[in-house]
Predict the structure.
Amino acid sequence: MWTGTINFNNRIGPQHLHMAVRLPTEFMDPVPGQFVMIRPAGGGGTLLSRPLSIYQFVRNQDHVILELLYRVVGHGTELLSQLTRAAEVNILGPLGRGFRIDKTPSHRILLAGGMGVAPITFLADYLEGRLAGKYELKICLGAKSCAEIVGMERIKGMQGLLNIATDDGSLGSCGLVTDLLPNFTQGCDPGKTMIFACGPMAMLKTLAEQLAPTGIPCQVSIEERMACGVGACLGCAVTVHDRRGKRVQKSVCKDGPVFNIEDICWDQI
Amino acid sequence: MMNKNDYNKQGKLAVEIGALKLKNPVMTASGTFGYGEEYAPYVDLNRLGAIIVKGLSLKPRHGNPSPRIMETPAGMLNAIGLQNVGVKSFIRDKLPYLRQFDTAIIANVYGETIEEYLRVSEILTKADGVHALEINVSCPNVKKGGVAFGTDPDMVAEVTKRVKGATDLPVIVKLSPNVTDIAVMAKAAEAAGADAVSLINTITGMSVDVEKRIPHLKNVTGGLSGPAIKPIALRMVWQVAAQIHIPVIGVGGIMSAPDALEFLIVGARAIQVGTANFIDPRATMNIIEGIEAYMKRHHVVAMDDLVGSLRI
């Protein structure tokens, strides 16, 4: 477990915050889709740490900076939101299996609903750094309203075509982020396409139904309440099909949070 | 060269639970430490007194639907439902890894029927590398077995007696706090031949999402663990230790060395660390070091001088 120091923890939306934490250089480089377990140093009011996916990571000579984008949803995130510069946090990570980035697909579609924008931005940045110009990239962001579309500035600066949908139509097109998808998947070659998605379970379930007839591969990063983050407590179970089609329990924290969309048993969600 | 200040290496923290010899009294509670390997990146497993693995049933179990956990004030509720790989897969896939460590491996045994408890115990007894069995008659999150056995002294005695007859390994009976008098259960286990008892398992509880008017756990109820239950666990350990002659293993909300010491002082021969592992993977290491530091500070040179030393 690491002790990090807060560089900034800025409010960027109605309940949305952007945090940067300074950590020692021993902290390993994360891949997009991985997460950390975080809590105020010593707990400060909650017992368990909260899982937050990584938004950005920068390695410097004598320290690293880990950035997180999160929304206040309960007591744990409320306490995190109150931390100010120089406050200390306890961090475990990087944890889990992130997105698998295969070099072949030439067409990549990134889909983020709500706070799903955090790992999706990290992924877009990562792709830009590793595979610049060697693929076609489309990014779709969705949220309830304009005020809840966060982190747009950073993602706008990246390559790739940005599309936005809001439930109330206050920004971009009116509707769900999954409604944007058919425009991009129509006529595309499933062998040369990969979709990466993160968002609420309802959105991912819709996506699963939408993609099933198309055969386009998709990796999703999912969320579940968790206590340990390392596969011990079995609190974050998800039912998936194994290679032989048998239903088995996997841990979101250790076997995920990224899964192939077709492996998840959506009827259990 | 032996560091003359290292009490752990000198064996000053050593304890005996029946025939089971532990290098120190700190164990990991079943269900909070996976099968050990999950915590190997963070903890030197060789330093632990014992590792108690997740409860094992005859066949693999899927456990309960999610959500399975919820944080509550100073605690957490869980309703995992004994998800486990099954005893055969444990022996094939998990035990070889654990064998390399110089740490006692205790298998937690669960059954829906007495026959299942017996069968799992027999299979584990034949396996190389299991040093003791902990009989789970206290899981509150399964429909059959578990706490259904642990709330009736006759059933506790029956399971204990039958398992004892089926194994030559030390048998620890893990007791439920969800009873009127836990000492009655402890005495039943002792009379039936148990080598030790461990207490407490979680306390049944629930939590409700008032906006949606639904329980936070899909299973509706779950087991409460963490600091919230420590005073209750401590009181029960103290009561039981005064009434039986076999070793008592204390468990319930131990987060730190002072917490562990409280249990030892009221009469626990050893302790288990559970929920604390989730919060700080190195909790057990800090507790071992803290007990050692306490012993030096108080000139205690053997665990026997500490266990049950409460002054009233």
Notes: Residues 196 and 246 of chain B are 5 Å apart (CA to CA). The mean pLDDT of chain B is 95. The two ends of chain B are 42 Å apart (CA to CA). The domain at 7-305 of chain B is CATH 3.20.20.70 (TIM Barrel).
